[in-house]
Amino acid sequence: MALALIKKAVLSNPNSLRKTVGIFYNVSRNHWNYQYKPGPYPRTEEERAAAAKKYGLLVEEYQPYPEDMGYGDYPKLPDIGTDSKDPHYPYDIPDLKRNFNEPFHVKAEIIGEDRYDISMRPRIPVWEQLTWFLGTVGGCFLLYFFLEDYKIGRPVTAKQYPRDGPHYLFSEK
Question: Which residues 6+ apart lie within 8 Å of 42 measured at CB?
Fold first, then answer.
């Protein structure tokens, strides 16, 4: 039944075959590589050595994330943002400041060169930034609160209509 429906859909519209082949070609070409998925957490020294070799690291410098974090055997890399790396080093991929087969950081989508730099030390400490912010917002609130009774505006009276009762005009008539 399903084969008959597929034949009818393909034969009734020749462009559908081209689109279907294009979709399958794109899926097969741009798929998620099975090697990208981390393996199980290494428990023995042989597993640690195999995981270190898998990620192109020495056994001495390989350190996996804790098991409860759920990253498996993925290596715990130093928290260095892309923007903090040496701009004059001859990287294999200079746009990303990476070398070939260099493992990605777990938080690579957060600490890119155009995003948050996890290793940057701010010029002004965060506590001082917070103090200035709260001081500014608090000062504006205090000015509003204490000057609420002293409104400034044009001194005009209400519009006078005949239905509102007698009105007095200050003219010579």
Answer: 48, 50, 51, 64, 73
pLDDT score at 111: 84
Q: How far apart are CA 75 and CA 52, in angstroms?
A: 8
Q: Give pLDDT tens digits for 7-25.
A: 666 666 666 666 666 666 6
Contact 41, 75 (CB under 8 A): no
Asked whether the beta carbons of 75 and 64 are under 8 A apart, the reply is yes
Give the H or E element holding residue 127. Answer: helix 126-146
DSSP H helical ranges for 13-125: 14-29, 45-54
Q: Where are the beta strands (DSSP E) in 66-144?
A: none
Both tokens of residue 88? 């004059």
CA distance 143 to 130: 20
98 forms beta bridges with 93
State the Cα torsion 147-150-151-152 to the nearest 10°: -110
pTM for this structure? 0.53
- Encode pLDDT of 59-86 as tens digits: 999 999 998 988 889 999 888 888 888 9
